[in-house]
Write a structure and sequence with these properties.
The protein has helices at about 1-15, 40-60, 65-70, 85-90, 100-125, 130-155, 180-200, 215-225, 230-240, 280-285, 290-295, 310-315, 320-325, 375-385, 390-405, 415-430, 435-440, 445-460, 480-485; strands spanning about 75, 265-270, 305-310, 325-330, 345-350, 370. The chain is mainly alpha-helical.
């Protein structure tokens, strides 16, 4: 079995890097072979290829299953005529196992991206550059991406193999043990700090969408907030506030394909429906499965794999503009037989990623937001409050509320403010792959999900008694069984 793994990594080390047309690179075929990384343009092409991993995560990788469906924000629409997605459903109900192929896909995709970054960083010194600033930029991009990928891994799985060198052959393919959580976070922080020093604050037209100094600083702020190091979180998030980002006046416009990489965008994954293979496919996965022709104009069923729950629908305050911008309803009498249907045959769907008309069946044109300035403001407000600077925390919180059409808050206790910022984080960032991580970071995952599960068992006849029995060990996902078997990793407890 180890020989099989060696072949996989040898192939991986030679073929991983691909091009990303969205970043204005002429398509080329290249490998990580020793004769490739010689010129600035070759390195540029390789760096662009590293971004494609993030594209894959939310398309074929179904990353949102682990970040939104796992939480109380979304669930799936039960399709009695198509039971292909049972393993995705099990993630929602805390019934997933180490043999779940979607868990393995996410693990592999994230590590593929890390390998691509390691290839770049291992080979870049051998390339000729006419401009040292450009070389530093590419190093910064690779380190930002590696840090972001490891941040996702450590929050999903806990301690993971820590690789910061290129896998060049079978002898490099194995890591006999997983690094500690602390060691992984130390590497993330180092990568993000290096990236922040090397990356520019912005780019000219054709390079817009690449990682920036602001993206690296935001990653640092997020990591320190997760680690409860509030002074450092404040330090780096406040640096972001000085870089010129602004909230888009209308919340709905943030997500429009006509407004990509806007003034609020700190970092978003780039997609382009005008180029085959570069399109996103979000709504075709998310929308009610009976709504294909009515909502997309194309025959066939949608996925029904990521639909809002009553919990998130009821979380919005009266008058909050974000609710209508984020959630829509598909009304059809045939929906009355669906478990998830609301009165009148209404099934909710995620509206912030719904912008018809669509150019082709299965193609959408939305980018995926990773970090927005509103998120920066809310993280800053949370960190300030936890660091006993509650008075300073109102300004960033109320800027977000003001855009939503809500009255400013004042005079809250530290605990009251904490709950207020948790509420804002939930509704502001709904469906953007943040909710599960927010519950983990704030220590509320078990309490919230047990209560949510009890509600779902009453609401949905399809949910069995074994579902949503959330326990401490379920706060991380199992290491894929194939990795445990082939490498001898220790499995996460109780899986």
């Amino acid at each position: 079995m180890k020989a099989k793994m060696n072949i996989f990594f040898l192939t991986l080390s030679c073929t991983l890097v691909s091009c990303n047309k969205l970043l204005e690179v002429k398509p080329e075929t290249f490998t990580s072979g020793s004769n490739y990384y010689k010129t600035e343009n070759q390195v540029r092409t390789a760096v662009n290829g590293a971004y494609s991993v993030l594209q894959n995560l939310n398309n074929n990788g179904n990353y949102w299953i682990f970040t939104e469906v796992r939480s109380d924000n979304t669930t799936y629409q039960y399709n009695p005529n198509n039971r292909c997605c049972i393993t995705r459903e099990q993630v929602d109900e805390f019934l997933n196992t180490s043999t779940d192929r979607y868990t393995e896909t996410v693990w592999t995709t994230l590590f593929n991206g890390i390998q691509q970054c390691n290839v770049i960083l291992s080979r870049i010194e051998g390339a000729t550059f006419t401009d040292d600033a450009k070389k530093n930029q590419y190093i910064g991009e690779a380190k930002f991406l590696r840090g972001l990928l490891y941040f996702n891994l450590v929050r999903l799985f806990g301690g993971v193999p820590l690789r910061v060198e290129e896998v060049r052959g079978p002898g490099d393919a194995f890591t006999e043990e997983r690094a500690s959580v602390e060691a992984v976070y130390a590497q993330i922080i180092q990568d993000a700090k290096d990236a922040a020093e090397k990356l520019p604050a912005s780019y000219p037209g054709e390079s817009v969408g690449r990682a920036t100094k602001g993206a690296a600083l935001t990653l640092l702020g997020d990591v320190y907030l997760t680690r409860k190091d509030y002074p450092n979180a404040i330090k780096f998030l406040q640096e972001v506030t000085g870089l010129g980002y602004q909230l888009v006046p209308e919340y709905a416009d943030v997500f429009s394909p006509l407004n990509k990489n806007n003034s609020e965008s700190v970092f978003e994954v780039q997609y382009d429906a005008g180029i085959q293979g570069e399109n996103s496919n979000f709504f075709f996965n998310f929308g009610p499965f009976t709504a294909g022709l009515d909502l997309t104009g194309f025959q066939g069923q949608l996925g029904g794999l990521n639909i809002p729950t009553p919990s998130i629908i009821n979380a919005y305050e009266p008058g909050d503009k974000r609710k209508d911008a984020s959630i829509g309803y598909y009304a059809n009498p045939d929906n009355n037989n669906a478990f998830e249907s609301f009165p009148g045959g209404n099934i909710p769907f995620i509206k912030k990623f719904y912008h018809p008309p669509f150019p082709n069946n299965g193609w959408t044109n939305e980018d995926w937001p990773v970090y927005r300035y509103a998120h920066v403001l809310l993280m800053l407000a949370e960190a300030l409050n936890e660091d006993n600077k509650t008075g300073d925390a109102y300004a960033p919180l109320n800027r977000v509320r003001q855009r939503a059409g809500l009255a400013p808050l004042s005079g809250l206790s530290k605990e009251g403010f904490r709950e207020a910022v948790y509420q804002e984080e939930r509704v502001e960032l709904a469906f953007e792959n943040q909710r599960w991580f927010d519950l983990l970071r704030t220590g509320r995952a078990i309490e919230v999900m047990l209560a949510h599960g009890a509600e779902e068992k009453v609401r949905l006849a399809r949910v069995g008694s074994e579902s949503y029995n959330v326990q401490e060990y379920m706060l991380v996902f199992p290491i894929p069984a194939s990795e445990v078997r082939l490498n001898g990793f220790e499995q996460n407890p109780n899986y």
